[in-house]
UniProtKB/TrEMBL annotation:
It comes from Holdemania massiliensis. Residues 3-347 form the Gp28/Gp37-like domain. It comes from the Bacteria. This is Gp28/Gp37-like domain-containing protein.
């Protein structure tokens, strides 16, 4: 495996001769991260002068955020290089002014990135441009003030099971922002080959499975502007015949007045509140998560028959389980010449509860 260290201008600092271990954690609903450990101390100085870590065989590029050096009592030396993938660059920007946008989810996300990270010369992220339009998502109305850009993008995308990525072209040094969606590999479609994970097919090594409804909510009261009995409240009903579980969402930051523009009509303002409710209910989902080590060279080949973001079938006959779940995380662990691939299907309970504690 070739691993390049690149400087802030994407020029090659060095190519690593080897490493002790590499963790490469890919995520669908958040930026992934990595950790590389090498016993050669010369890479400490080289990594400190580098900005990125690049693998020609990987879709992601690492953003170097932490470089460490240790030496123990037996003089064993270790250099550790850690960070997140390029999507974490968007965490460095906020939506500083009130913006009101209407369009598909993809169009809204692209507009936010374009306005904040590309067209504003003071806030521009170097080499970043918009990639190909994929025509994803339904039309929404949304308004935002003060949100972290990256968190807002994932929030908008989560309602429709979308994600975004920043693709890097090694030859041109261009960075391209794209909204994307994993492939449907279930038996409910005929366009893509089916991906079925089951111990019966010997492609699953082990399994950890849990379902949790502790924080689950399916009905939202979204309170906008106004005071007391005059406050405007929208109801978002996602019960679909289930027992109602309510949550109150304070959305007073959404305002009907738009400065020098024409104010929102009552119907338009209700649509804004409704969209906010849909977004926030994603933080209160029923969590069902599968964590499995898989044989990546079995009947299903990693990155050929399944990949990050794909909607796949998971079957376990012992617990009478058969569900369609999206791959939301793939962890690659390299130790010497060995590779272990761990797949997570579904939503991580910890990440959802962390969002709620932050004020979701």
């Amino acid at each position: 495996m070739d691993i390049y260290l690149l400087d802030r201008e994407f020029q090659t600092v060095c190519i690593l001769d080897g490493f002790s271990s590499l963790l490469w954690n890919r995520r669908y609903k958040a930026p992934g991260d990595f950790q590389l450990v090498t016993a050669d101390p010369k890479y400490f100085v080289l990594a400190k002068s580098a900005k990125y870590i690049y693998r020609p065989d990987a879709a992601e590029v690492g953003l170097i955020e932490n470089v460490g050096f240790t030496q123990d009592e037996s003089n064993l030396e270790m250099v550790t290089i850690k960070g997140r993938f390029l999507e974490a660059l968007l965490y460095r920007r906020v939506i500083s002014k009130t913006v009101t946008l209407k369009g598909t989810v993809e169009e809204v996300c692209r507009q936010l990135v374009s306005d904040i990270c590309i067209n504003d010369p003071k806030r521009k992220i170097g080499n970043l441009e918009l990639g190909q339009l994929a025509e994803l998502g339904s039309v929404i109305d949304t308004q935002s003030t003060g949100d972290n850009l990256s968190e807002k993008l994932y929030e908008l995308e989560a309602v429709e099971d979308l994600s975004h990525r920043i693709k890097y072209d090694f030859l041109t040094n261009r960075l391209q922002f794209e909204v994307w969606k994993g492939l449907d590999r279930t038996d409910e479609q005929s366009e893509n080959p089916i991906a079925l994970f089951s111990s019966n097919f010997e492609n699953v090594v082990n399994l950890e499975y849990s379902v949790d409804e502790t924080e689950y909510r399916n009905f939202a009261f979204v309170a906008g502007e106004g005071e007391g009995p005059g406050r405007i409240v929208a109801e978002v009903d996602c019960t679909n015949g289930e027992e109602r579980r309510e949550v109150y969402i304070d959305a007073r930051d959404l305002q009907k007045k738009r400065g020098d523009q024409e104010d929102f009509t009552d119907q338009e303002y209700q649509a804004l509140l409704y969209q906010r409710g849909l977004e926030k209910l994603q933080d209160y989902k029923r969590t069902e998560v599968f964590n499995s080590n898989v044989d990546h060279q079995s009947n299903l080949i990693y990155k050929k028959d399944f990949d990050l973001g794909d909607l796949c079938i998971y079957v376990n006959h012992k617990i009478q389980l058969s569900v369609n779940k999206r791959i939301t995380e793939i962890d690659e662990a390299y130790e010497g010449t060995s590779l272990t691939v761990t797949i997570i299907f579904g939503d991580d309970y910890k990440s959802i509860t962390e969002k709620i504690k932050r004020g979701g």
